[in-house]
């Protein structure tokens, strides 16, 4: 098989290389899958530099999100949930490769009508957006929801989920193209969070200038967002893509009765595994109802594992929107 194997930590994605490795042999409790698409994530950039909270022992294969076709099922399962030839998507270490082995709980069937590219980026962003807004923040019809970095993968997922529940969405982004993308996915208003006074602009968009009911923050903008959060509002903290882990002015949290809510989807597999199935069921219903669509970056194609470094580089420089996904040709299709 072909894969991006990390033998030592690198300075950046441009240093990643593709190598040939022996084909995988699945263990009795894992599926063997031919990968047709792999999605990029910001944590990939940290992991290849040795700076992520989860670092596999060297050497390891980079990437974590994928979609593909099952080549073999676990020999220990007489009645596996998925069958040979099924199209699936999943999350497991080693996605930047032509093959992967993973356990059943890491896989889901690709929704009808979806391709490998769309499905490859579904396992993290959509459940994160749903769990954050629905379970943690309790989004409901009539809410005003501020979504930061709304043109990113998790941002576009959150935009669609908030709209599906009847909320008004104010999307922040930093360029005209990203404003267009956010509106295409359902945002009611767009605001440039690089401009001075953007919080006042947000407040003016809400009833009586009271501020937003919910802030969805994957960037690290809690302190600033408090200025435009309504009394009794909720701020859901998804991550810190800005690289800045904030020290929050808790007096303002107190005076405005604001709830600060943490949300990391990865912890649900350990702490509340039953919720994973529930969230995916809800998302599949939204897909079936036409209220949720894939968020693949479509301004440029990334084909083959040798394009992963370029894709990650553009992601790091904020030159993309949505979910950046690399197609992974199999066999004779491969240009590698």
What does this structure look like?
- By secondary structure, the protein is of the alpha/beta class.
- It is 27% helix and 22% strand.
- The chain is built from eleven helices and 16 strands.
- It has helices spanning 42-47, 116-120, 125-136, 153-164, 176-184, 198-204, 222-225, 250-255, 268-271, 273-288, 308-316; strands at residues 2-3, 5-6, 19-20, 31-39, 60-61, 65-72, 87-91, 99-102, 107-109, 144-147, 168-173, 189-192, 212-217, 229-237, 259-262, 325-327.
- Strands 4, 6, 7, 8, 9 and 16 form a six-stranded antiparallel beta sheet that branches. The chain has a six-stranded parallel beta sheet with strand order 12-11-10-13-14-15, sandwiched between helices.
- Helix 3 (125-136) crosses helix 4 and helix 3 crosses helix 10 (273-288).
- The longest helix has 16 residues, at 273-288.
- The N and C termini lie close together (11 Å).
Short description:
This protein has 336 residues and is α/β, with parallel strands linked by helices. Helix content is 27%, strand content 22%.
List the helices and strands and how they pair.
Blueprint: E1 2-3, E2 5-6, E3 19-20, E4 31-39, H1 42-47, E5 60-61, E6 65-72, E7 87-91, E8 99-102, E9 107-109, H2 116-120, H3 125-136, E10 144-147, H4 153-164, E11 168-173, H5 176-184, E12 189-192, H6 198-204, E13 212-217, H7 222-225, E14 229-237, H8 250-255, E15 259-262, H9 268-271, H10 273-288, H11 308-316, E16 325-327
Parallel strand pairs: 10-11, 10-13, 11-12, 13-14, 14-15
Antiparallel strand pairs: 1-3, 2-5, 4-6, 4-8, 4-16, 6-7, 7-9
Keywords:
six-stranded parallel sheet; 27% helix; alpha/beta; 336 residues; globular; single chain; six-stranded antiparallel sheet
């Amino acid at each position: 098989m072909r894969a991006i194997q990390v033998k030592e930590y690198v300075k950046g994605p441009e240093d990643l290389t593709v190598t040939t490795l022996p084909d995988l042999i699945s263990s009795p409790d894992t599926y063997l899958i031919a990968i047709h698409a792999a999605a990029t994530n910001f944590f990939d950039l940290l992991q290849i530099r040795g700076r992520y909270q989860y670092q596999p022992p060297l050497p390891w294969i980079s990437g974590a999100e994928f979609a593909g076709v099952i080549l073999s099922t676990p020999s220990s399962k007489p009645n596996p949930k998925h069958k040979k030839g099924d199209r699936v998507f999943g999350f497991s270490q080693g996605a930047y490769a032509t093959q992967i082995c993973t356990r059943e709980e890491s896989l889901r069937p690709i929704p009808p009508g979806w391709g490998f590219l769309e499905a490859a980026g579904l396992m993290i962003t959509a459940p994160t957006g749903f769990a954050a807004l629905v379970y943690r923040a309790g989004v409901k019809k009539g809410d005003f929801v501020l979504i930061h970095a709304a043109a990113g993968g998790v941002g576009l997922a959150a935009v669609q989920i908030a709209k599906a529940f009847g909320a008004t969405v104010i999307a922040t982004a930093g360029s005209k193209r990203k404003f267009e993308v956010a509106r295409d996915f359902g945002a009611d208003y767009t605001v440039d969070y690089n401009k001075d006074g953007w919080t006042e602009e947000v407040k003016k968009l809400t009833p009586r200038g009271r501020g937003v009911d919910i802030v969805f923050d994957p960037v690290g903008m809690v302190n600033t967002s408090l200025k435009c959060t309504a009394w009794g509002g909720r701020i859901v903290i998804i991550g810190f893509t800005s690289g800045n882990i904030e020290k929050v002015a808790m007096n303002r949290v107190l005076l405005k009765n604001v709830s600060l809510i943490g949300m990391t989807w990865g912890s649900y597999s350990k702490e509340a595994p039953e919720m994973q199935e529930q969230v995916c069921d809800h998302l599949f219903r939204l897909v079936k109802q036409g209220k949720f669509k894939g968020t693949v970056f479509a301004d440029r194609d990334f084909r083959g594992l040798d394009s992963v470094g370029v894709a990650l580089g553009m992601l790091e420089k904020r030159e993309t929107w949505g979910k950046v996904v690399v197609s992974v040709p199999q066999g004779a299709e491969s240009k590698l």
